[in-house]
């Protein structure tokens, strides 16, 4: 290799060529609530995918892009694979998981270090034989007695012929560099597919709707979040300000009342938290107006689900 000096003379630089660049797609799969979206956000270093304590928070395939000096990894976050409750929406979510597994260079199966369940075994059965899979055993911060991790990892090894098993804490960032190093080994040689700085394939409209849905999942009880979807009526960029009008659709009048809260206080709190997330990610001020409408049976037919982007 030669390079110019400030004096203009060319000198030989003795070091070897830089490592070749790697780039590829990696699907993040697992049963509901194991921490898939938390992990993707931590790997990308930005909040792209919404998270909550409630299972089935994620309803879409969402790409998060991590661009480094030697590799670009394009993560595909997926809905939790649901084995317990059959519904049209759940069937769609499961289809999204299967589709995400079809065309990737590698897979990260996320598991919960505190328990391996039948639902984990069901997801493991979906894993393709031809694509390498890494097991990320998450939430190790919840395992006080670290000696309990060894038998757990032995259980995990029974699920599939993994390329690697890495205990991590996505929430704390523990062992994520080790996980990233294992993931990078799975990527094919390729120039980056996305420009540096691009974080996701989703647009701000989609992310705005998701942030509202996250606050509903976090602030409300067990019923309403699952009866809810969010549509963006208008999204206008006005200089540095974004003016966003959103509608939250619920299935029943009673759910509308719960969502609004007395005098609309609950909806106000939801909108204000969602707006803060939007301002952080979009890097500018947001004016957000949210309406709540009853749309009976929005999740009951394939046609209606498709209209809401599922
Ligand atoms: N203690 C602990 N909690 C975690 C960790 N990772 C995720 N969580 C929590 O686990 C819950 C579920 O996280 P999500 O990232 O939404 O899980 P998910 O697998 O994407 O869930 P679905 O999209 O619903 O399938 C949230 O309350 C997270 O804060 C971790 O490493 N440690
Ligand atoms: Mg998720």
- The separation of the N and C termini measures 52 Å
Tally of contiguous helical segments = 9
**Which term fits the overall shape?**
globular
User: What is the name of the CATH class of the largest domain?
Assistant: Alpha Beta
User: What's the number of extended β-strand segments?
Assistant: 11
Enumerate the spans where pLDDT stays under 50 for 5 or more consecutive residues. Answer: 1-7
Strand order of the largest sheet: 4-5-3-6-7-8
Helical coverage, percent range: 25-40%
| Structural class by SSE content | alpha/beta
Report the major sheet. Answer: 6 strands, mixed
Q: Could you please describe the fold and organization of this structure?
A:
It is a single chain. By secondary structure, the chain is α/β, with parallel strands linked by helices. The chain has 2 domains: 22-186, 3-Layer(aba) Sandwich (Rossmann fold), CATH 3.40.50.300; 204-307, GMP Synthetase, Chain A, domain 3, CATH 3.30.300.20. The protein has helices spanning 36-44, 88-102, 118-126, 149-157, 176-186, 204-219, 253-260, 265-282, 302-307, and strands at residues 2-4, 10-12, 22-29, 62-67, 71-77, 106-112, 133-138, 164-167, 229-238, 241-250, 286-294. The strands form 3 sheets. A 6-stranded mixed beta sheet has the order 4-5-3-6-7-8, with helices on both faces. Residues 1-7 have low confidence and may be disordered. The site of guanosine-5'-triphosphate (GTP) has 24 residues, from helix 1.
In short:
This protein has 310 residues and is an alpha/beta fold. It has two domains: 22-186, P-loop containing nucleotide triphosphate hydrolases (Rossmann fold, 3-Layer(aba) Sandwich), CATH 3.40.50; 204-307, K homology (KH) domain (GMP Synthetase, Chain A, domain 3, 2-Layer Sandwich), CATH 3.30.300.20. It contains nine helices and eleven strands.
């Amino acid at each position: 290799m030669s390079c110019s000096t400030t004096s203009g003379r060319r000198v030989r630089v003795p070091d070897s060529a830089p490592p070749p660049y790697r780039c590829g797609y990696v699907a993040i799969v697992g049963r509901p609530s194991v921490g898939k979206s938390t992990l993707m956000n931590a790997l990308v270093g930005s909040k792209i995918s919404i998270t909550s304590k409630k299972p089935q928070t994620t309803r879409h395939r969402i790409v998060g892009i991590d661009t480094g000096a030697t590799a670009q990894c394009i993560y595909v976050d997926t809905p939790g694979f649901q084995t317990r409750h059959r519904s049209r929406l759940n069937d769609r979510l499961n289809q999204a998981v299967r589709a995400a597994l079809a065309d990737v260079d590698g897979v990260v199966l996320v598991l919960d270090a505190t328990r391996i369940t039948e639902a984990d075994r069901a997801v493991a059965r979906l894993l393709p034989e031809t694509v390498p899979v890494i097991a990320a055993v998450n939430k190790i911060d919840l395992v006080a007695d670290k000696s309990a991790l060894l038998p757990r990892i032995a259980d995990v090894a029974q699920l599939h012929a993994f390329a690697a098993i890495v205990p991590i804490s996505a929430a704390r960032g523990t062992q994520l560099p080790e996980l990233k190093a294992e993931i990078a080994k799975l990527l094919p040689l390729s120039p980056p597919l996305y420009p540096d700085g691009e974080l996701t394939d989703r647009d701000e409209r989609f992310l705005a709707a998701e942030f509202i849905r996250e606050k509903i999942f976090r602030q409300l009880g067990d019923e309403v979040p699952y009866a809810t979807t969010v549509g963006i009526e208008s999204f206008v960029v006005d200089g540095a300000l974004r003016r966003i009008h959103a509608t939250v659709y619920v299935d029943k009048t009673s759910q509308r009342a719960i969502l609004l809260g007395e005098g609309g206080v609950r909806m106000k709190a939801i909108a204000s938290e969602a707006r803060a997330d939007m301002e952080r990610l979009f890097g500018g001020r947001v004016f957000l107006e949210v309406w709540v409408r009853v749309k009976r049976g929005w999740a009951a037919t394939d046609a209606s689900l498709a209209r809401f982007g599922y």
